[in-house]
Amino acid sequence: MNTENEFVNVTPEAPQAGPNPTPVSYAPQPLSPADERTWAMLAHLSVLLNLVTGFLGVGAALLIYLLYKDRSRYVAYQAMQAFLFQLIFWAGGGVLIGLMWAIVGALCAILVGILLLPVAAILTPVLLVFPIIAVVYGIIGSIETSKGKDFRYWLVSEWALSLM
Questions:
Q1: Alpha-carbon distance 139 to 131, whole Å?
Q2: Looking at the domain assignment, is residue 104 inside a domain?
Q3: Has residue 76 been placed in a domain?
Q4: Are 164 and 76 in contact (CB under 8 A)?
């Protein structure tokens, strides 16, 4: 027996590499112009969710922003505007109404609070205009972005740009 040749090739061979596979790209693909218009419109229309749920429209606009911020600057900007506008007008209006009634409730223990009750009753419909403005403005934004126009909310558009 030849013991020298038996142990010559004890290291395993490296597997033979086949043809080079194409590299997989995990970079987000940009949206088509039609998809950009659709998602921007949906970001603005998310304000309608607030009518049913009271708060999910804000979350939907933020979710659209987070999902599409790397794929489309246009969609990201429109969604950020919709998010900020809803947060200010929808949630802000609710906070103001709640704060007003909390103050009136606290002051009801004294005579001034009782005198402020009619004022609160008058101001409530006035403050309810904020959510209505948010819904109307959101619908206008959705119509404009569905046409491919650059819609900008009043007082919010520059803030949205600075957050992006």
A1: 12
A2: yes
A3: yes
A4: yes
Q: Is residue 20 part of a domain?
A: no
Model confidence, pTM: 0.60
Q: What are phi and psi of 125, to 5 degrees?
A: -65, -30
**Tens digits of residue pLDDT in 35-75:** 999 999 999 889 888 888 877 888 999 999 999 998 999 99
Number of domains in the chain: 1
d(CA 58, CA 48): 10
User: pLDDT digits over 105-145, tens only?
Assistant: 777 767 676 777 788 888 888 788 888 888 888 889 888 88
Question: What range does the domain containing 85 cover?
Answer: 33-152
Name the helix (H) or strand (E) containing 47.
helix 47-53
**How far is Cα 33 from Cα 99, in angstroms, rounded to an integer?**
43
CA 46/CA 131 separation, integer angstroms:
13
Q: Which of these, 83, 113, 85, lies nearest to 101 by C-alpha position? A: 113
Could you tell me how far CA 17 lies from the centroid of its own chain? 46
Output Rg (C-alpha) for the chain, integer angstroms.
Answer: 29
